[in-house]
Amino acid sequence: MKRAIAALPVLVALIFGAFFLWGLNPNRDPNAIPSVLISQPAPEFDLPAVEGTGVPGLTRADLSGNPEPVVVNVFASWCVPCRAEHAVLTRMVERDGIRLFGINYKDKPKDASAWLEDLGNPYERIGSDLNGRAGIEWGISGVPETFIVAGDGTVLYRYVGPVVGAEAEKQFATALAQARTKNGGES
Amino acid sequence: MRRPDEKEKHMIPEIGQFALALALGIALVQSVLPMLGAARGNLLWMRSARSSSIAQLVLIAISFAALMRSFVVSDFTVVNVVENSNSLKPMLFKIAGTWGSHEGSLLLWVLILAAFGAGVAMFGSNIPDALKARTLSVQAWISTGFLSFLLLTSNPFERVFPPPPDGTDLNPLLQDVGLAMHPPLLYFGYVGFSIVFSFAVAALIEGRVDAAWARWVRPWTLAAWMSLTAGIALGSWWAYYELGWGGWWFWDPVENVSFMPWLLGTALLHSAIVTEKRDAFKSWTILLAILTFSLSLLGTFIVRSGLLTSVHAFAVDPARGLYILGLLGISIGGSLALYAWRAPSMEGGGIFAPISREAGLLINNLLLATATGTVLFGTIYPLFMEAVTGEKISVGPPYFNSTFIPMMLPLVVVMGLGPFLSWKRADLKGVYQRLRFVAVLTGLAGLAVWYITQGGPVLAYLSVAIAFWLLFATLREWAFRIRLFDVPFSESVRRARNLPRAAHGMTMAHAGLAVAMFGFIGSSAWKSEEIVFVQPGDVIQIAGFDVRFDGVERVPGPNYLADRGTLVVTRDGESVTVLYPERRSYLVAQSTTTESAIRSTLAGDLYASLARPASEAVADQGAWTLRILYEPLVFFIWLGSVMLVLGGGLSLSDRRLRVGAPRRRPQSGPAVANPAE
User: Fold this and answer.
1) CA distance B280 to A133
2) What is the domain extent for residue B43?
3) What are the pLDDT digits (tens) for B221-254?
4) DSSP readout, B320-346?
5) Is the CB of residue A107 less than 8 Å away from at least one CB of chain B?
6) Phi, psi for B626 (deg, rounded to 5)
7) Shortest alpha-carbon distance between residue A124 and chain B (Å)
8) Is the pTM value of this prediction over 0.90?
9) What is the pLDDT averaged over residues B278-296?
């Protein structure tokens, strides 16, 4: 009995250790927030263009019937990380040929167009979500967030925070590649 | 300042790295030689631990100094400096940048580890050779593990060529005096328990634990406990003044991992008393010594592995996590396996009645250990849930408050009672007679609080009463020892002077906890808070104050730009103070911090912080979001913490524990009135 009790601490420690080992799995991100939208059709929304940019607005219909998966990025001119992310997204558009749509979240058109003029515009379409209504539909928790949407309008992937830095860009590129093969396989 | 010339710039970080490698070599030798010497009775081998411990300390100190120099002169050929410093940063924070990163803080970790080893080597002259040799060998095992971790996975001296023109700056949140001092103190506590762990493992290997062992270990436990107390209090102070959330404890995983060793270390301090005085609780004390340091290691692991989500963990790196987990497996698993093997053969010590000092301390230990388990469970639970069900959850303050507080309240009740109980068998009637007056006083004080506050949660009144109980009982016990008011005052003073310092220490620390409790309770139960949109000229009323918002202006700082608000505070028309909360934008690090403005008095803190309104439309009209809090009695938290640390210090300075001092002979002083003896 005495022996069993003395052995108890080490047994408990071993169980803890096993959980920790599991927790170290590099594919696990404790900060990731699962999205209920994954594998669901993208939500309904209809956003007007951002005034002064000359880029058309964005609606739900633009996300269906595409031959390839598209990327929807939620951004704002007041969001500092978006500035860093902008360069990455521009590179993806120019180099990898992704189709990029923007949701301009709670941003004044004047500021947004100045921002885009300053940094360049990688977006094919931009919806102005002045009151944050579409943001609620998409269930975003902050800006920036980036979604990959399949050609048929199904949401495949969500990235919270800026896609900046080697690790983040790799994760995003992997998700995009998977989306592309999946899309190709189905259609 | 003189710019270092290219040549010296290119050498010093390498010297630092080389010194670390040498320290690792020495640690390897020290891991084996003294241990073998103790087994074979070879005195020379045993004593080699002394010089090797000191050599380790010197080498790691050289390495640390080399890194610190790189920060001071802003040597941007060192990656660590580039990532965590900037030439515009004030000097104090350049120095603090040395331990601001994962690599640097780990270097500090091993420095403190070596300091405790060298401390025992130099000042532990009363410890028998064999025990000392084994202890230092075990300390060298830990040292080997962490030095190799540092050298293999987290080299703080890595270079970058060509060097960038300037660094990316330390996280501005961390640029605060309180925080600059917080890690060193916390680490001193955390890592200080390593030597207690080494003593415990050495005792298990030797197979002997007695009163003398407990006495040798006590000063080191106390020193570690004091630093940990100070470190946690400073961290909490930082969260309160810097983070601008208007709270001092959030049950964040990283806070919890520093709190758990504290709780268990407190249990250890008390159980070691029983081992020392009564030769009992031996295997329990050993287990506590092992577990306390295990929890410190766990803290190091959790903070650095990205296992849990927290506001202030280091960058995630699974490879490093795996290495530390390996170290944890060997040290915790190994020591507990050794415990499972050797502990059953330890003889139990003196027996005691259900009502006695021992029993009181047993309750203390049970409650503290259970509370630690509760906090551990709550901290790790999200991981368990995710592993078992795949569901993501987070455990927040409601869980901790509803499990932790109900355990602490009875603990505090027993704390008031315990010192009145005598060893072996206590006379309950005598205790009752002495405490009758205290109980009445507690009741009156509770009623007074109820009368003043006019309403509040029942739990708050109960807690206040319990805190008063602890305060009065502690003072009563101290008064009883020096026979205050029973004998002429000069006689009491003489008795106070002859009382062992440890007794004064206990009084101070227990009273400190009572004082801190007033702060905990006041600021959580009677806090008032207002969050409002304000335009210049608006007046907000809170806790009897009128706060007028006079607008925001932009002012430059050394490496930031600040939006500074002006708040004129009046009470009944009389001017009280002007508060200047700020939002600082750090240009290089591209982040903003909230500098709250606080007016602290004994009665409470008036606390204001400023934020941009979420809606741009409102912001355009010059409106700001203002958060104003009134937190009563917060000052007592810091006062109580200082008293806890001072109490530990008094106890540490007791002649009985003074390192190197001969033991006090019984006849060297008049007998001290002590109900316990």
Assistant:
1) 67
2) 1-170
3) 999 999 999 989 988 887 787 666 667 888 888 8
4) HHHHHHHHHIIIIIHHHHHHHHHGGGS
5) yes
6) -115, 135
7) 26
8) no
9) 92
